[in-house]
Amino acid sequence: MEQFKKEQSMLDGMIDWVRAIDKNNTVFYANKKMREDLGDDIVGAKCYEIFCRSKRCIDCIAKRTSNDGEVIKKETVYNGLTYMVISSPILSEDGEILGSVEVFRDITNEKVLSKSLKEKNKKMRDDIAFARNMQKRMLPSKGIFNGINIDYLYEPSEFLSGDFFDLFKLSDDLTGMYMCDVVGHGVSASLLTMFVRQSLRNISKNNTKVDIILKELHKTFLALNLESDKYFSIFLAVYNNKTGELKYANAGHNSIPILIRNSEIILLEAKGYPICNIFDSVDYDVDSVILNEGDKLFLYTDGITETKNGDLVEFGIDKLIEIIKRENNILSNIKTSLKQYSHIQKDDYAVLMAEII
User: CATH assignment of 138-356, given 3.30.70.100, 3.60.40.10, 3.30.2290.10, 2.30.30.40?
Assistant: First the structure.
């Protein structure tokens, strides 16, 4: 007890309540702050009487500390305020447990703040879940669309994705399709994917030329006046189901689209600048290829090829092509291979497979 008495002056200077309790649950010391707030008569009273109780608490931490020497924490409510109580043993010089000392810290404001944050976080999670559901609902339906059979994979790394693709009808003969990769993840990236979707659909009502559509998209993006770190890449194509011609242009999309023709793999390489605010005006080169019945156009984002294993080795396009060459269940094989290659998905990825029928 001598050591404890030496420390009393320090305890009297604390703004928290501090009290010492013997093994019989009698308070033999209370610091200045506790006596000022609750009265001097708390010394000599039973520890539970301060809370207007007639018997010891069921979860009495003072008793547990006195018996076992445990340091224990618990929360308790008194006069509408919430306290964090920490109980520590009082030891004699030879290590015998003589009782316990309890520190009461008022955490009412923290509890109110925590509750408020939890409520706000729940609302945010609900809003993000709603946005994710909306984003997924805006993907094209799997199946037949204007002479094209559509299937795809869509795997956000977070709740919301910066990868997006779409197919839209320009006329009875012409179908637009694209694969887009917005820098970053989360809410801001997903909002940009929605901007791309709506802008392309609006622009293509009056334009069917791939390069003109991209130029207009770039101009519309500049009007947003966003920071320079907000940009996206996009591969855009227009397919003519009468002639079989696919015209395409690449705005900085580094995942080379793949044409699957029987056992042949054809890379649709094209270069172009991403949609960003660095350039006031950008021209895009247009390439074309004739598609035949049974040909498959394979569009994807770099979340696939840049997936890394435990040794930080990227999945790569060669491994992707190997999977494609197996032909059967291409999308299922890709998903399985990626999971086996890396157990943690750090980037969004999307794959669109459009088969000419």
Answer: 3.60.40.10
